[in-house]
Design brief:
This protein is mostly beta strands and 300 residues long. It has one helix at residues 248-253, and strands at residues 4-5, 13-14, 31-34, 39-42, 48-55, 61-67, 75-78, 81-84, 89-96, 107-116, 125-131, 136-138, 142-149, 155-163, 169-177, 182-184, 192-194, 199-206, 221-226, 233-242, 256-265, 268-277, 280-281, 285-290. It folds into 3 domains: 4-131, Immunoglobulins (Immunoglobulin-like), CATH 2.60.40; 136-242, Immunoglobulin-like; 248-297, no CATH class. 2% of the residues lie in helices and 49% in strands. The chain binds zinc ion.
Amino acid sequence: MNGTECSKCRQWYLKNNDKYCGYCGSSLISVDIEPSGEIILISQIAPRKKVKFNNTGNADAHIRLECIGTATDLIRFSPDDFTVRAGMQDEIDIILDEDKLPDDFTEQEFIFRCIVNNENPKDKNLSVKVKTGPKPVLLTEEIDFGEIKKGDIPAKRTLELGNKGATPLTLKDVRAAGGNHLQVEKDFKFPIKISANKGIKIQVLWDSNLYNSETGSEQAGFHIIYGNYDKPDFISAKGKALTFDVTQDDIQKNILELLFDLKGTSGGLAGNVRAKIGEWESEPKKLCFPASMNQLFETP
Ligand SMILES: [Zn+2]
């Protein structure tokens, strides 16, 4: 006798090109896919999953998967073409090619037809849903605290960011950099979850009393660190500290000008004086030289 015995009834010898047992009628091609439900691939979080093919038939099954509708280059199978021996099982990888996801992509379902020995068994479709993982978007580009005088209450600004992905984004921390004067609101509790298509607002502060022009650097701003997104973000922060403490550095970099606005009267000389360095100008200070002091300015 040629061929293999039918494993269902053991009453028939099957030839290689038979599709059904001539005695019991059972199908020679029988493949089960595990998991049976939808497979979900998520960029960043789960871009790769395994799928098992059980060959419960009597013949070797050559399998390939074919996308129904427009072909997609977002999903690939490794290997994409394989043979599962009769009674055996094989596992393959379904891989999402994250680099090919369009910027505005959120989620989409793809159905693949399972082709076994060039036939498509009924109900043997593989459904794969692709979702974008967390996708942070900075809604604040730069923080400008404006002019802050020493002694003022801390200047507050709002830092805003959103999640354009289809899955929640975990915000792990927001850290100030570039000097102690930059701070994140103290009551804010990290980590925090930002739902899909939602945003968050965080108050950031500039405390002029902690400003030090020697430690304040060009790289001042806020580092944004995520729990489930690899690339941290940075929002730069600027402000102008108004202070009467003129440092050596200020004088070397800029010209210090003193602007006098004095009027002479019989009582002496009185008016205002203002200091000016670059674009910064101090509040006017009153200055007064009583008449009796005139002799101090006379040169011998
Ligand atoms: Zn049979």
